[in-house]
TrEMBL record:
It is found in: Cytoplasm. Belongs to the DapA family. This is 4-hydroxy-tetrahydrodipicolinate synthase. GO terms for biological process: diaminopimelate biosynthetic process; lysine biosynthetic process via diaminopimelate. The active site is at Y133 (proton donor/acceptor), K161 (schiff-base intermediate with substrate). One of its GO terms (cellular component) is cytosol. Its EC number is 4.3.3.7. The gene is dapA. It comes from Photobacterium aphoticum. Catalyzes the condensation of (S)-aspartate-beta-semialdehyde [(S)-ASA] and pyruvate to 4-hydroxy-tetrahydrodipicolinate (HTPA). Pyruvate binds at T45, I203.
Length: 293
């Protein structure tokens, strides 16, 4: 259902701090032309934490509108309150989205049983396919493979985005959940290795600015040509690393603006624009990766 290079799409903002829908439309066209396999709108990289509910919903629906059925669109619907995550999922019912990406609850640090009950309640409240999202570095809680296995028994929980970088988990999760349970990397630096271990693809930050390279790389990998895929991956490795020189999505929005993919690189507080000291670091990575337009 979901595989290959899926982009964790940035949300462009204008000088007034409002969503720049013209740039958003251009980004959708960029990814369709580049061969990106799916778009994830309003995830962490999309600054979902600082957009209002109305803005969140509108960005997803506009992304769908611009896509016109040419590329699957998933919606970030996570929250640290179960009822809020359910509300987001219900708001997209019948919209045409391909599924929901639902992050583990952040800050309140539930137990494994709490995580199970959280995701179970969300899945039972909607028919939309659910992709779990485990990113302990952001949330402070780690969704364990044994809990994932319990959740995988629920019909519309179809996969997981794993941003731990813990490659042995791929095999363990496959053994516990079966080959049909979708495993997507949330860590660009280890994404290709994740697929080599049996994963199905990546939800990528790097794809925001190197869409064609990422799409080509994962098509090669999924066809079994890891040698050719690794050549691309090694060239992109500076980006995989330096796009996190400051908190995501600060560097990638700056880079997208430098490449002319968006009109501005603005973010909403508490995120601030890329520091002057980090700008040469990201620019060097763009040059090393040969993605400058």
């Amino acid at each position: 259902m979901f595989s290959g290079s899926m982009v964790a799409l940035i949300t462009p903002l204008d000088d007034a701090g409002e969503v720049d829908y013209a740039s958003l439309a251009s980004l959708v066209e960029y990814h369709i032309a580049a061969g990106t396999d799916a778009i994830v709108a309003m995830g962490t990289t999309g600054e979902s934490a600082t957009l209002t509910v109305d803005e969140h919903v509108k960005v997803v629906l506009k992304t769908l509108e611009y896509a016109q059925g040419r590329i699957p669109v998933l919606a970030g619907t996570g929250a640290n309150a179960t009822h809020e995550a359910i509300t987001f999922s219900k708001l997209f019912s019948g919209s045409g989205i391909a599924g929901c990406l639902t992050v583990t609850p952040y800050y309140n640090k539930p137990t494994q049983e709490g995580l199970y009950q959280h995701f179970k309640a969300i899945a039972e409240a909607t028919d939309l396919p659910q992709v779990l999202y485990n990113v302990p570095g952001r949330t402070g809680v780690d969704l364990q493979p044994e809990t994932v296995a319990r959740l995988a028994k629920i019909e519309n929980i179809v996969g997981i985005k794993d941003a731990t970088g813990d490659l042995p988990r791929v095999k363990k999760t496959r053994e516990l959940c079966g080959d049909d349970f979708i495993q997507l990397s949330g860590d660009d630096e280890t994404g290709l290795d994740f697929v080599a271990e049996g994963g199905h693809g990546v939800i990528s930050v790097t794809a925001n600015i190197a869409a064609n390279d990422m799409a080509t790389m994962f098509k090669l990998a999924l066809s079994g040509d890891f040698a050719a895929a690794n050549e691309i991956n090694q060239r992109l490795m500076p980006l995989h690393k330096q796009l996190f020189v400051e908190s995501n999505p600060i560097p990638v929005k700056w880079a997208a603006h430098q490449l002319g993919l968006i009109q501005h690189g603005h973010l909403r507080l508490p995120l601030t624009e890329l520091s002057e000291s980090a700008q040469p670091v990201v620019m060097a990575a763009l040059k090393d990766a040969n993605v400058l337009l």
